[in-house]
Design goal:
single chain; alpha+beta; 6-stranded mixed sheet; 5 helices; about 30% helix; globular
């Protein structure tokens, strides 16, 4: 489901946990807020606790008409429960509804890489992604990333 403003604290906590785990790159508070504003969350039935998050970054890639799967992270105790897959599916649907021609993802996580492959993304050379992705990107981390691309079907008019 779309995240709400009252989810911001939980989003900050999850992103912090993902960063500490080495799965997510460090983000500023503004970047986390933007992820919360554009993102989706997977919530635990009953408790409503946030089990995972994902954002759709489009602003930097407007000219290319593509979006980035940003900040995908699920709480480890829900790993394998399908939350990550549901988040990616929802994000792809949102990207298609926005008229984007493709979405891409960058990860250092083998489980995330496997998830993207299962969801139809193809692995690509990171240097084929929009140049804006790499502006200010940590050079050490860049050496370990894997990149994935998914072409989207045009939405019928």
């Amino acid at each position: 489901a779309p995240l709400r403003i009252d989810d911001l604290a939980a989003v900050e906590e999850l992103v912090g946990q993902g960063t500490a785990d080495g799965v997510l790159r460090p983000r500023t508070r503004l970047e986390v807020a933007r992820l919360a504003a554009t993102g989706l969350g997977a919530k635990v039935v009953g408790s409503g606790h946030l089990a995972g998050v994902v954002g759709l970054e489009t602003e930097a890639y407007r000219a290319e008409q593509v979006g980035e799967v940003s900040g995908l992270y699920t709480v480890s105790r829900f790993s394998g429960s399908g939350a990550g897959g549901l988040l990616v599916e929802g994000l792809v649907e949102r990207a298609a509804a926005l008229g984007l021609r493709a979405v891409f993802a960058v990860t250092v996580s083998d489980p995330a890489a496997d998830l993207f492959a299962r969801k139809g993304f193809r692995e690509v050379d990171p240097h084929t992604l929009p140049a804006a992705k790499w502006v200010g990107y940590d050079r050490e981390r860049l050496q370990t990333v894997r990149a994935y691309w998914l072409d989207l079907a045009p939405v019928p008019s």
